[in-house]
Amino acid sequence: MNGNNKPYVIGLDLGGTNSVFGIVDNNANVIAETSVKTRGHNDNAQQYVDDCVVELRKIIDQVGGIEKIGAMGIGAPNGNYYTGCIEFAPNLSWAHDVVPLAKMFSDALGIPVAMTNDANAAAIGEMTYGAAKGMKNFIMITLGTGVGSGIVVNGQMVYGCDGMAGELGHVIVEKNGRTCGCGRKGCLEAYCSATGVARTAREIISNTNKPTLLRDIPLNQIESKDVSIAAGKGDEVAKEIFEYTGRILGGACADFAAFNSPEAFIFFGGLTKAGDLIMEPIRRAYDENVLKIYKGKAKMLISQLDDAKAAVLGASALGWEIVMERGTAISTNAI
Amino acid sequence: MNGNNKPYVIGLDLGGTNSVFGIVDNNANVIAETSVKTRGHNDNAQQYVDDCVVELRKIIDQVGGIEKIGAMGIGAPNGNYYTGCIEFAPNLSWAHDVVPLAKMFSDALGIPVAMTNDANAAAIGEMTYGAAKGMKNFIMITLGTGVGSGIVVNGQMVYGCDGMAGELGHVIVEKNGRTCGCGRKGCLEAYCSATGVARTAREIISNTNKPTLLRDIPLNQIESKDVSIAAGKGDEVAKEIFEYTGRILGGACADFAAFNSPEAFIFFGGLTKAGDLIMEPIRRAYDENVLKIYKGKAKMLISQLDDAKAAVLGASALGWEIVMERGTAISTNAI
Do the chains contact at B136 and A161, CB–CB below 8 Å? Predict the structure, then answer.
């Protein structure tokens, strides 16, 4: 009835630095790709959209024109699914206010466009193409510069009353703990993001005399990536940093289970590259802390999506949602 | 198509002491009521059902026979919605194992029967008849002997992968805090249940020389009810106990908001009788602790259901769910 003769959707992974566009088929193949710098564009949202559309048209033409495209999905920081707006994104110079980005792209391209935040897009991607295929209840945790989450209940994304649900990175895990970017203290994000891991590294290295490869790096320049590399070489202090991080994350997940008793937690992002070094303490802390009735039920999985493409695929999956389930332009409901 | 000629449903509030049955119309009128002691029945589940049905038939006959009844809903401790079973209920002598209670009542009465836990039943009741009418995303918190919760997302109850989701009373609010009945430490329930409040009362009274009416009661006999009465008389120590309790509950709710960004938190149970003495610190702690994007969004409400009837009405609402939405016997899906 709708879009069946349209074999592709567009996914936009709108990051702080780059905006990556992919044209994707329903087997998760990225048929064509392009990108535009997110910054610049005279700090003007309409200019950003116009500049993107110029580049985008080139790859649309490559695949046979806009008639082949069923819809577009956007994963963006502070992207609100209900309104199709980016709301007060501190790191986007043209979105410090409320920008109706879904409607702007829809008007420019003449196709339906939906938007959600990046972690929700990742969860939809995982459900459509990845480790969560067929799951009805799971929690996606994205471990990047920040800690994001996308929650699925009864097979549906949890958007809440305002489109902004699922900010598990800002659940308090340590009363009066580390100051978080959100202005509060003790958030999960302050411990388990890449910056949180770097902070833990600095704390642990300062408080121990144990030998560690990490001392070769100036203390204030240590990044979570360095910890991964050192841990991969068997560095005991680096392993201790992952142990500390994983225990906090596993303990937090034990509390999250009491909410929607998920079939799985799926972890995504740089930190998961450490494999069992991070997953083992997560699993252990989860088992030790979870309520008895939930014990042994939730799987602890690493995302199955190719890192480089995951964000674009997630956004494209939101496009498929429109094509498959709704068939109408969500952007027509946007403000 | 189904049940339209059947003007009533049966609600069963299965408590540790009494099993209260109500025949309810779709305007929340309890047309007929009866009750049976929950204990006894030779510690045999089939005997319990048989004994209940004898009493139940009397009120069924009063309203015109079983042809008038569309379905039955049960709210029971450890009631699993998916299986229709009571699972390992420590306080029910005939349900220490797994008892397929929904199927047993369905077989005995010849009508569809659904079951869920008591807090979920309360949430469904509130959504059907009470303060949550028309809401799609809210969290019900029941403050009784324990702390229970029922969570609604996109207008649907959150049951999770196993039918056991929504145990927010067992989220950790104080690391290495008070021992909880579940065997873990620092659960919300250990602070904000009736027994938690009594425990707080004993702690605070022991640690202060301030005058208080509560000293008239032997320390180990103080109940949360006594704290309410004293607070109602302006007792400063009793108010401090509610302040402490409310702050912990409000802080916990701030974390819960990050999950499903609810339109409202609805509180039910004895503790809410204290009105603003408990609600004010809940609201204050919530506002101080909630993530900025959620600030000012969720209402903090007290249940609108009549306490004496709320549990039966909640269970009956589950019965209406079958009649209205499914039209088929969920118990046929039971194990």
Answer: yes
d(CA A319, CA A28): 12
Quote the longest CA-to-CA distance of chain B.
Answer: 68
Residue A129 lies in a domain: no
Q: Quick check: A309 and A315 in contact, CB under 8 A?
A: no
Taking any CB pair shorter than 8 Å as contact, residues of chain B touching chain A are: 87, 136-137, 151, 153-154, 156, 158-168, 170-172, 174-175, 182-184, 251, 254-256, 258-263, 289, 291-294, 297-298
What is the predicted ipTM?
A: 0.90
**pLDDT at res. A88:** 81
pLDDT of residue B77: 87
Q: Which of A158, A251, A262 sits opposite B260 (nearest CB)?
A: A158
Q: Please compute the mean of the pLDDT values over residues B225-243 and round it to a whole number.
A: 96
Overall number of domains in chain A? 2
Amino acid in position A228: S
**H or E element at residue B266:** strand B264-268
Residue B91 has what pLDDT?
Answer: 77
Residues of chain A with pLDDT under 70: 1-4, 326-335
Q: CB-CB: which of B160, B174, B289 is closest to A137? A: B160
Partners of A33 in the β-ladder:
A22
Q: What is the pLDDT of residue A97?
A: 86
Q: Residue B170 to residues A62, A165, A289, B213: CA-CA distances in angstroms?
A: 55, 21, 11, 32
Q: What is the predicted pLDDT for the residue at A91?
A: 77
For residue B322, is pLDDT > 60? yes
Range A97-119 burial, b when 16+ CB lie within 10 A, else e: ebbbbbbbbbebbebbbbbbbbb
Tell me whether residue B106 is in a domain.
yes
Domain of residue B158: give its range: 134-304
Of B136, B170, B255, the CB nearest to A291: B170
Q: What is the DSSP letter of B94?
A: T
Q: What CATH number is given to the structural domain containing B113? A: 3.30.420.40
A248 located within any domain: yes
Q: Which residues of B touch A154 (CB under 8 A)?
A: 153-154, 156, 158-159
Question: Quick one: CA torsion of B276, B282, B287, B292, rounded to 10 degrees?
Answer: -140
Q: Does A201 share its domain with A269?
A: yes
How far does CA B51 lie from the centroid of its chain? Answer: 25
